Amino acid sequence: MATALLGGRASAGSSAAAAGPLPCDLYAAGGTPCVAAHSTTRALYSAYSGRLYQVRRASDGATRDIGVLGAWGYADAAAQDSFCAGTSCLITVLYDQSGRGNHLTQAPPGGFQGPAAGGYDNLAEASAAPVTVGGHKAYGVFVAPGTGYRDNSTNGIATGDQPEGMYALFDGTHYNGGCCFDYGNAETNSRDNGNGTMEAIYFGNIKVWGYGTGNGPWVMADLENGLFSGVNPGYNAGNPSVSHRFLTALVKGGPNHWAIRAGNGQSGGLSTYYDGPRPNASGYNPMKKEGAIILGIGGDNSNGSAGTFYEGVMTSGFPSDATENAVQANITSVGYAAPALAGAPTVGSRVSLRATTSCCTTSYLRHNTADTNAAIATVSSSSSSADKAAATWIVRRGLGDASCVSFESADKPGQYLRHYDFRLRVDTIDSSALARLDATFCPQASHNGQGVSFRSANYPSDFVRHYNYGVYAASHGGSHDWDSATAWADDTSWVVTSPWA
């Protein structure tokens, strides 16, 4: 939408002016203004009417900025839906609402390489994390392993031992034990520059460095070469496991003082898990923060993590608990909710998957009997028992991402549908992270309006597609024959039906 921006911020008289203060208004009132503010769901200033994020569609590489709607500034998800209809889109930019230009873009290689071209990290699929906020449809940033965003050249972010605060709203049910799902302050060269060169919010259940009570996940602080759950390296009893569907997570730090706080993003207040001196380990007092911003990765571009981000900010100065409590009250007031995906398979159920392309509406996804490859073939009530069993799947919680699903073969127990060199087949899955991700697929709204589409858990722009009766992980218009743009939306849409066996 066309708006007059003032240094990236809208003027106070803009049509998006809110009836009450939003998070960055509250931080400013508390004397600790936002110096970075990112969200794909809503404005974080009451006077903001600019861009929230940018998407790029697969069909032609075109991009579109997604802005806000009217008063309160909720995301214009309808603009994304229209622009991305019949294809897939990736989130290419998370715009900074503070006016300082601290935009997050595709993370470059660093101490670790990413899976995308040139060693960059993947970008998030734009429709993978649908929510409603204030009754309006919106999308979060779904971070699969290998996905990451970064800004190594920032303006106003704390460096050295300067005080700062940050919060993020996450999906508290989407996490893993990889390193490291972070949002916050990191190194400016994408490498590990030693203890104290980071200060970021971490969320997940890794126990290599620090952990709290229970089995996780935990909100901790990534201070580089240590995830800290409290003053001590390793275990701290004051840091509980938390798994709210919408989780508010906060970290703040200043000279020899830092804190972790968290709460339910749908109701209630914040709890303080730690508030005290810097860790009992060398290198963290004073801090040596460098001022880059990361999302979904560690400071050295370690990118094995998973999570979902909706909104977050970084501040100049150490915010008071009262200010953070007011921000939490605003977050809970806007009514974040998770809509159910119609037609998605249920974990534990037996299903068959029917093609929706006009040529093939009696065809189902099955494994071949002559080899291990997956294919589509007609199945009917008169089909043999063997053919019916080959087209039946048991839905399991995702082997590589518990927020997604895996498909166990009904007639080959212990073997799962997976992609290997882009071709889908049934296979026994070993304990490696790669194999488990290859066998994990994330249901989302279908590309043609029928059934659902299944996104590859480790290749965000690839979806389960039938092509010449074979089945592949296919992008829209990529370099392989099975990436053909012809009928792509239909070929990647599947109806979940009752099982044939």
From TrEMBL:
Residue span(s) of domain Alpha-L-arabinofuranosidase B catalytic: 23-337
Xref: Pfam families = AbfB, ArabFuran-catal
Give me the segments passing through the membrane: none
- Keywords from the named record: Glycoprotein, Glycosidase, Hydrolase, Signal
Q: Which residues form the Alpha-L-arabinofuranosidase B arabinose-binding domain?
A: 353-496
- Locate the coiled-coil region(s) and give their ranges: none
What domain of life does the UniProt record list for this protein's source? Bacteria
Q: Which family does it belong to?
A: Belongs to the glycosyl hydrolase 54 family.
- Its protein name is Alpha-L-arabinofuranosidase B
Tell me the organism. Streptomyces griseosporeus
